[in-house]
């Protein structure tokens, strides 16, 4: 068989529709792999804002609805939108830190967060003429540093969960620490001894095991579940009309740029995996779908969406190339989004259970950043400075939350109180200043020539 014949068969496999039983099984597999990451951002924001369980459950329903819509746009395609490859979408972890910072400002609230999300979606759509040049500003050094910062700044969230959650009266009680340690131990054991699909859903297995332990201990309570309707529809602007705050929108636009570059690496990687190289036109359709999904998300009460790297890893592992498998996953997620009882149960998961899993999830994000940074020359002193100073800036809100209180205006809060935003700005600016003579070297032609080997593809290892 010639290489041309092999490539043709692989390309045909992208558009092939497997038999219905396999289609549903493969689709459910994708849903299981992305489930923990998909619901984590609403849970994190809900804990940060002390939102009632019913509100968090509704945010999860909104999240799942937009996730299903975004997957269908990417995999099926909608006019100029959608990469038409097996891609799973979900809420971006890069947005969590800035959103938590916004939540601390009472003048912003949920309407302000949704307004910032809409603004980021519009900003992403306006970037269309520059998509092919975007990668030159985000080499592996910058992208890897930002992803590393995302993981590092989110780890305290998982640690607080392990203690019982923000503001818990019995924070740090042995029962909370014991449950978190049990979940972590289950995940580690499954990851060590299991293989294939079971190993890929180690986090989900750990969560289920943690719930089984938390239930008899009285930590997992479903009071109010019976009152939830069986089926309910998500309504646009449920929390009121969005509000637009300059700094909040600016912070989310920075997040949007980071996620677009991260998606670029994943799109090129999945194109390589399925044998359909991604050219400029295809890449633009994919990034346009990311931006459109984020715009839709803001209107439907949820947060910026991007492609999920763990599912790209699943495609690589299973070699199931059909984009209709992810389409099936999108329809499954849409169905679940109509079931408030399911979302309420997820929102009722004890923080200690989430803590054991959160340490792994957020730590894996940091590890993925390290992997990508490794693609840069860290023996170069200038690159070392970019990484070192960016990480230092990102730790300011954690180490000294009131550092800027006496000098910074209130409107700068969403930027100065977000470690992710500070670190990302630092990485971008420092790279421009210190590596201006290397800017764009070898970045644009990779997309233009549709080369499968792309430095950011190392993000696959996040799975």
From TrEMBL:
It is found in: Cell membrane. This is Purine permease. Its main location: membrane. The keyword Transmembrane helix applies. GO terms for cellular component: plasma membrane. Belongs to the nucleobase:cation symporter-2 (NCS2) (TC 2.A.40) family. GO terms for molecular function: xanthine transmembrane transporter activity. The lineage of its organism: Bacteria, Pseudomonadati, Pseudomonadota, Alphaproteobacteria, Hyphomicrobiales. Keywords: Cell membrane, Membrane, Transmembrane, Transmembrane helix, Transport. Pfam families: Xan_ur_permease. The keyword Ligase does not apply. It comes from the Bacteria.
